[in-house]
């Protein structure tokens, strides 16, 4: 085997020299650095360690010209002024970026400023060929981005599903419908009969399915459907107003369900401002198990879907879709875990 000593300040090592040092072909080293699964994990590890030791940095422009790939995976990132930072999104991005990096890819974020159409931004990303594949974040019930990418033949993985068929694309989703059906039955068993719900204004599929699961549980028990208010996610003032409206209904609901943690946390904040004891006078439940949920006052009962782990799984699905083509298309439905904390309990005495 050839040996070579790296010295700081010397001319940067070329791919050919790195391959010679490892006694591997240039093609094998290049594919190992790109994270291709047809190169063994042991070889990929050897190549990465040698590249790090010698300070080798791949020439991305040259690699793209030769392979026709950028090794970037794109994702749209909507930007709305004055909105609260979504802790779910932060965990999701960390898991996705980390999973892609482990597989020799990088995450490319295309921002969608307020007032711009995300489909138009997605079209620019596709036409510029800046990304080899796309991750679609939070699908709506009839998301036009799905049809666009399928028509263009662009590999992608969806975080969520549309209500139409899902056979033509890869997706990962959480069974929110099943979780909220179980939640409805759980709260009914605790004596609750008056329910309200805080939901996002936008027609996200996850919101539709979670609401449908909860409403099905109430219908099966012969109970009235929940009083539902919708609100723009991230708009703190709007969420506080909606929470106050629900809390001050006459008669007051005994349980308010937020379809996301940030909505449930807005209800907790408003209940505390109005001196309403949770869970003695009001049960509040969310979904996501974002980090702040455990530190709320009281700690929020919610559902965990292992945000970062799910995003890392999406990263693996993207790479598989790229490497296997249409044979790599797969769908995964993940079971969330109920996280009972201190914000839920039996219905107040005398509540009917």
UniProtKB/TrEMBL annotation:
Pfam families: LacI, Peripla_BP_3
Gene Ontology molecular-function annotations: DNA-binding transcription factor activity; transcription cis-regulatory region binding
Gene source species: Chelatococcus caeni
UniProt xrefs under SMART domains: HTH_LACI
Name this protein carries in UniProt: LacI family transcriptional regulator
Keyword Transcription regulation annotated: yes
Keyword terms, alphabetized: DNA-binding, Transcription, Transcription regulation
HTH lacI-type domain ranges (all copies): 13-67
Lineage of origin: Bacteria, Pseudomonadati, Pseudomonadota, Alphaproteobacteria, Hyphomicrobiales
InterPro entries: HTH_LacI (IPR000843), LacI/GalR-like_sensor (IPR046335), Lambda_DNA-bd_dom_sf (IPR010982), Peripla_BP_I (IPR028082)
UniProt KW Hydrolase keyword: no
């Amino acid at each position: 085997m050839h040996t070579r000593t790296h010295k700081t300040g010397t001319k940067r090592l070329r791919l050919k020299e790195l391959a010679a040092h490892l006694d591997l072909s240039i093609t094998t080293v290049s594919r190992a650095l790109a994270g291709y699964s047809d190169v063994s994990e042991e070889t990929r590890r050897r190549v990465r360690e040698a590249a790090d030791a010698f300070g080798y940095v791949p020439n991305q422009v040259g690699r793209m010209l030769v392979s026709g790939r950028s090794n970037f995976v794109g994702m749209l990132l909507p930007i709305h002024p004055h909105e609260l930072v979504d802790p779910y999104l932060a965990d999701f991005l960390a898991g996705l970026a980390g999973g892609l990096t482990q597989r020799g890819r990088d995450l490319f974020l295309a921002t969608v400023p307020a007032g711009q159409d995300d489909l138009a931004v997605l079209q620019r990303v596709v036409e510029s060929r800046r990304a080899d594949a796309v991750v679609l974040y939070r699908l709506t019930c009839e998301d036009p981005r799905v049809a666009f990418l399928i028509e263009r033949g662009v590999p992608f993985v969806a975080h969520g599903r549309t209500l139409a068929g899902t056979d033509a694309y890869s997706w990962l989703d959480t069974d929110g419908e099943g979780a909220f059906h179980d939640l409805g039955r759980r709260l009914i068993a605790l004596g609750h009969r008056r329910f309200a719900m805080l939901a996002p204004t936008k027609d996200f599929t996850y919101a539709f399915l979670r609401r449908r699961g909860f409403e099905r549980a109430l219908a099966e028990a012969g109970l009235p459907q929940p009083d539902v208010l919708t609100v723009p996610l991230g708009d703190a003032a709007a969420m506080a107003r909606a929470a106050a409206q629900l809390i001050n209904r006459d008669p007051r609901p005994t349980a308010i369900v937020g379809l996301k943690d940030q909505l449930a946390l807005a209800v907790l904040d408003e209940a505390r401002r109005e001196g309403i004891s949770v869970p003695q006078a009001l049960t509040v439940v969310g979904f996501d198990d974002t980090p702040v949920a455990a530190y709320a006052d009281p700690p929020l009962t919610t559902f965990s879907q292992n945000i970062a782990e799910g995003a890392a799984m999406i990263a693996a699905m993207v790479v598989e879709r790229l490497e296997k083509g249409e044979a790599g298309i797969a769908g995964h439905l993940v079971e969330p875990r109920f996280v009972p904390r201190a914000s839920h309990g039996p219905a107040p005495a005398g509540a009917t």
